[in-house]
Design a protein that fits this description.
The protein is an alpha/beta fold. It folds into 2 domains: 47 residues, no CATH class; 217 residues, Aromatic compound dioxygenase (Protocatechuate 3,4-Dioxygenase, subunit A, Sandwich). The chain is built from 7 helices and 12 strands. The strands form 3 sheets. Strands 1, 4, 10, 11 and 12 form a 5-stranded mixed β-sheet that branches. A 5-stranded mixed β-sheet has the order 3-2-7-8-9, with no helix packed on it. Strands 5-6 form a two-stranded antiparallel sheet. Helix 4 runs parallel beside helix 6. The protein is globular. It starts with 8 loop residues before the first helix and ends with a helix. The protein binds benzoic acid (BEZ) and fe (iii) ion. The site of fe (iii) ion has 4 residues, from strand 7.
Length: 289
């Protein structure tokens, strides 16, 4: 096709799919929709060539920021509400299980494995409030799930995750905990504080382009894995925190808001948080799909 025009360019590109080598049905579905939406977007906003070059340079700069300590593209997806959308599409809720939410860019694999009740705190911060977090992991029939691994991570009272803060010990405020035969888990940690998502580079440019702010409400991340059950990636939000109703990455869900209460006399932490999780069985998931 030599005579490409504004009218036929989208159809010509769509027609190239699978023309010279076979492509899988799912790949075709994704590529067709991507091409249609991208072309539609450019036409909708009448994109100029200068704006196109700016976008190419922007993506190149975002890519250059990525390393094993920083994942800029997840951050950009979060700012646009894309990660929370994809998570809800991937993990439909039937009503019984604990809601999932965004993973975010700060998860690190291989956090230290700790005994039940241990503390993730390796460094003290002035004004910090300690919290004992405990609860049960159960299936949708209310039966305990033994041997589930909870991966926990949170920011420090200075608003920074340890991998973005050279002054924190490696894996500070991170840990992995296993449920016992009653499904019970427990760990000690710090009350999480609201923090700004990184806005020093391309993420900041995007936030400013949206006229939005950078703050997230205080939360503790949790990822739960147990063979036979749907893995859960979620967060527990502090009911007292600011920004619950105006999260910069749109990830708050009512059911994930927990109450940090004053600990009783003789307790070794300032606060206590009780939070239970429900995981759907893997077989149940497949039946629902
Ligand atoms: C987080 O909760 O760690 C997070 C999520 C999305 C973007 C930035 C941070
Ligand atoms: Fe976070």
């Amino acid at each position: 096709m030599r005579n490409v025009t504004l009218e036929n360019v989208t159809d010509i590109v769509l027609g190239s799919l699978g023309k010279h080598q076979p492509i899988a049905a799912r790949q075709r579905e994704i590529m067709e929709s991507l091409i249609q939406h991208l072309h539609g977007f450019c036409k909708d906003v009448d994109l100029t060539h200068d704006e196109f070059l700016y976008a190419c340079d922007y993506l190149a700069r975002a890519g250059q920021l990525c390393s094993d300590k920083r994942q800029e593209f997840i951050l950009l997806a979060d700012i646009l509400g894309v990660e929370v959308l994809v998570d809800m599409l991937s993990n439909p809720i039937s009503g019984k299980e604990t809601a999932s939410t965004v993973l975010g860019p700060f998860f690190r694999e291989n956090a230290p494995v700790m005994p039940k009740g241990a503390s993730t705190v390796q460094k003290a911060f002035e004004g910090q409030e300690t919290v004992y977090v405990e609860g049960y992991v159960r299936d949708t029939k209310g039966q305990p799930i033994q041997g589930a691994i909870l991966d926990i991570w949170e920011d420090a009272p200075n608003g920074l995750y340890e991998n973005h803060d050279p002054d924190q010990p490696d894996y500070n405020l991170r840990g992995r905990f296993e449920t016992d035969e009653t499904g019970h888990y427990a760990f000690r940690a710090l009350r999480p504080v609201p923090y700004p998502i990184p806005d020093d580079a391309t993420a900041g440019e995007l936030i400013r382009a949206m006229g939005h702010h950078t703050m997230r409400p205080g939360h503790i991340h949790v990822m739960i894995n147990r063979e036979g059950y749907r893995p859960l990636i979620s967060q527990i939000y502090d009911s007292n925190s600011d920004y619950l109703d105006d999260d910069s990455v749109f990830a708050v869900k009512e059911d994930l808001v927990g109450k940090f209460e004053r600990a009783g006399e003789g307790a070794d932490t300032d606060l206590v948080l009780r939070f239970d999780f429900t995981l759907p069985e893997q077989a149940q998931m497949m039946a629902a799909e």
